[in-house]
């Protein structure tokens, strides 16, 4: 059945669509392309997810508008973690997440600002905190925090991107900001980049590291390290022994769940590899998704 799906030329090669519709959307000449039309309802649902997440609205089904009733977001990834979808141009198409917790839900980075998007997140319960991983993802933080009556968090190194933050993370030492929620400062991608580890299960890594389908391993985006690759190597060396989690949930790049011991082994390998890297010109097209 030919559904008439296609990807238009506005695509920025952010990889989000390929994460959500693998086998249907691939990469060619520096952007996503449709590999084939969907064959069943499951594949149509995957393309709808990709379309509702796409920050440039590049994924279409002929000339028909998307049906809001087919919006799958927020999409459950685990018993308590949801992918928000509705990625924003103002965060370079970054993924964001919501964690349900009895003491108040956590929004890690944000989708694009829109009241219907916020309302759907609110249906999952009270949001107590909006946790920003770094400056690149700060664009809508204040709007969502005000909508939910939540506290907005950012590290002092990136405070100029969210000067009205309610809580400022300082220094380089890990800090428990709520029961079971640890923030690990990780300067490198930006001066104020951090990781949030929740309940020793979920690591929200921002743009510090991600799962690469190309290498089948955890990687740093060395060609999109705005602050210092040497600082990122030092941060990883200082931090990896303190990390324990099974879910890697980045802003850019793919997600991955592994046993805690296997994830720790791969992080140690990443720290070693990153120490060997040297500064390179910024080149988004060189990232190994």
Automatic annotation (TrEMBL):
Keywords: Hydrolase
Signal peptide feature range: none
Annotated SUPFAM superfamilies: Metallo-hydrolase/oxidoreductase
Stretches assigned to the Metallo-beta-lactamase domain: 93-252
Gene3D superfamilies per the UniProt record, alphabetical: Ribonuclease Z/Hydroxyacylglutathione hydrolase-like
Pfam families referenced in this protein's UniProt entry, alphabetically: Fer4_13, Lactamase_B
InterPro entries noted in UniProt: Metallo-B-lactamas, RibonucZ/Hydroxyglut_hydro
Keyword Hydrolase (UniProt): yes
GO molecular function, one term: hydrolase activity
Listed name of the protein: MBL fold metallo-hydrolase
């Amino acid at each position: 059945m030919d559904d008439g799906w296609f990807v238009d030329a506005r695509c920025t090669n952010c990889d989000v669509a390929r994460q959500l519709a693998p086998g249907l959307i691939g990469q060619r000449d520096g952007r996503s392309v449709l590999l084939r039309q969907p064959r069943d309802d499951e594949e149509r649902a995957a393309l709808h997810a990709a379309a509702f997440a796409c920050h440039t609205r590049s994924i279409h089904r002929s000339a028909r508008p998307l049906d809001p009733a087919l919006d799958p977001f927020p999409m459950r990834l685990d018993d308590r973690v949801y992918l928000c979808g509705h990625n924003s141009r103002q965060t370079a198409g970054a993924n964001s997440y919501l964690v349900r917790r009895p003491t108040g839900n956590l929004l890690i980075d944000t989708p694009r600002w829109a009241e219907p998007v916020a309302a759907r997140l609110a249906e999952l319960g009270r949001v107590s905190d909006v946790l920003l991983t770094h400056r690149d993802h700060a664009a809508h933080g204040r709007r969502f925090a005000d909508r939910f009556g939540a506290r907005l968090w950012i590290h002092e190194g990136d405070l100029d991107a969210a000067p009205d933050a309610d809580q400022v993370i300082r220094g380089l030492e890990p800090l428990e900001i709520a029961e079971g929620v640890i923030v690990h400062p990780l300067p490198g991608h930006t001066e104020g980049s951090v990781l949030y580890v929740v309940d020793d299960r979920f690591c929200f890594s921002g743009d510090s590291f991600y799962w690469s389908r190309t290498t089948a391993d955890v990687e740093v985006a060395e060609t999109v390290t705005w602050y210092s690759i040497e600082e990122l190597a030092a941060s990883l060396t200082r931090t990896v022994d303190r990390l324990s989690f099974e879910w890697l949930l980045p802003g850019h790049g793919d997600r991955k769940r592994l046993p805690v011991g296997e994830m720790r082994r791969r992080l140690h390998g990443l720290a070693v590899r990153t120490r060997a890297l040297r500064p390179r010109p910024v080149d988004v097209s060189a990232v190994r998704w």
